[in-house]
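lol so apparently i was supposed to do this last week
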Amino acid sequence: MAAGPLLIFDSGIGGLSVLDPIRRLLPNAPIVYAADSAGFPYGTKSAGEIAARLPALLGRLAERYDPSLIVIACNTASTIALDAVRAALDLPIVGTVPAIRPAALLSKTRAIGVLGTDATIVQPYVDRLAAEFAADCTIVRHSSAELVELAEAKLRGEPGERAAFARILDGLLSRPGGESVDTVVLACTHFPLVRAELEAAAPRPLAFVDGAEGIARRTADLARDLAWPDAPGGGRAVFTGAAALAEPYRQGLAGYGLSRIETL
Ligand code: DGL
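anyway here it is w/ D-glutamic acid bound
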């Protein structure tokens, strides 16, 4: 019997940055890409709201799509609710955590920027990663809800202005310690979708690091015994909000092989 699909979950379209490397490793896996458009954005919500929302919502998605495995392709949801989701569902769950470890391996100046959502950058999870993997580094944290919106707009075909990206980077680099930062963790899955814009707007060369490749490897490892058809797996997107909310993304999602859109 063919294995159930991989369910990739985010508040919005950020998880597409994780879908790409997963597809490269597992081209025959059927994909269900779920965007919680009814709950978007997560970054400005309280930890309590996110923790209360996630287990039940992922439970409903699991009931509908019977996935083999769930990837929570969202730093905000993972740093807050991963344990609660794992406790609630009897399925392998892969989470996303800020890529502080790879950044610490890369940084020469030993100063690392962590660019995430308001909710993510204050999580104790980030303190633990910093203490464990980057104890000799200065960690400079900065959040931007606007950058999440800019990534969403790009997929709708509305490119953002260079000045907006430059302003967001300046917000990070002008914080105490920011002048030494040479490596920036993109600690929100939306942000790699605008990596080129960030690179173009950077006032000096910066290495932008994210965890997508590592998540894909972990997913492939957990999925190694699953049997999929001997053909490209294809995919569909499911939005939790009204169908009209998904419409502007139709063309962008088709570019990721998600040509069918459903609502939960
Ligand atoms: N993509 C999500 C993350 O990785 C958050 C975006 C949002 O909903 O604020 O944190």
